[in-house]
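User: What would this chain look like folded?
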Amino acid sequence: MLKKIIILLLPMMVIASLLSCSNDSAGEEASVEEVVAVELFTAKHGTVHRSLNLLGNVKGKQEVRIFSKIPDRITSMNVEMGDSVRKGDLLAVVQNNSLKSRVKQVQANLEQAQAQQDNLENEYQRILRLYNENAVSQQQYDGTKTQLEATRAQVRSLQEALNQAKSQLGDTYIRSPLNGIVGQRFLEEGDMAAGQMPVVTVVQMDTVKVAVNIVERYANDVRTGLESVITVKALPDTSFKGTVSKISPVIDPLSRMIAAEIRIPNPNSLLRPGMFAEVTIYLETRENTITIPKYAVLQKTELVQDELGRQQILRENHVYTVDNDRAYYRTIETGIEEEGLVEVTSGLSSGEKVVLIGQSNLEDSSKVRIVEKEGRI
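Assistant: Here's the prediction, encoded as structure tokens.
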């Protein structure tokens, strides 16, 4: 009987021993703390902008369509498209033989009248001296004086006619009214110059402008002098700096838009009128402010009720900072966002390490393993 009891107790002791070992192993496993792999970013001072993105067309600072004042045939074209011109340079000549002849004719008549006037001036002075000495009659004096006044009037009339003829002759020489580049040439030698068709256009391109339309909600944000950055598809790796130069004082009642202009220096003529431009206007600039990547910031949303029973949504921005291989929950306030960066207005200091990747698996005081000490945006 005793042997049977001993035999039955041995298997039970073995099982109890095994269960005890199993419980010890489970306790050891439970005591091992989970370590989360993370990448970090160091908060640092930088510059961020609150900006407005717009689209517009590049225009020359000044673009002039030049017409012929004389409706006649073009006898000479002196410029080609793309030529640089200075103010006063001759662009084209219109048929002017008849006007040249008229100038010569009027010039000859004027010279003849002036010679006659000179003779009458001398004669009048002689008659006046004799008249004062009572040596000639009143009638003779009046006749000489009237003849002189008529000749003077004739000289003035011929002088005006000569000036007009010279002006018309000058109009046959079409000149550039400004420094610039010939943008287009519409007529050729032998074409008839007419009032409704320009001969050429001259564009001033050392400075260009971009015309944009601003939505009404930004009416009080955009002002002259704000810095802007302009890019065009033809030069994808190049950006151009400009400033807001003009803003319309009125809002278009149909589009609810405000017209504005951005002026950009263009010394190398890289920007050409007609290009489609992307414009960024910096509405507000924060310098020497703390910045971190936007996706390092987490947001906690909570639905609460106020004293009147109304529901409100509370949002809290936070990050995880790392110190001695542990991550700590940190509430922050954010400001301007720009191109993947966000401004931190409170809750974080420059030089602190924040979790850039892996923060969704963290809790306050979680143990971490740093995979990369400095994350990149």
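Residues 145 and 360 are 111 Å apart (CA to CA). If you want, I can go into more detail on any region.
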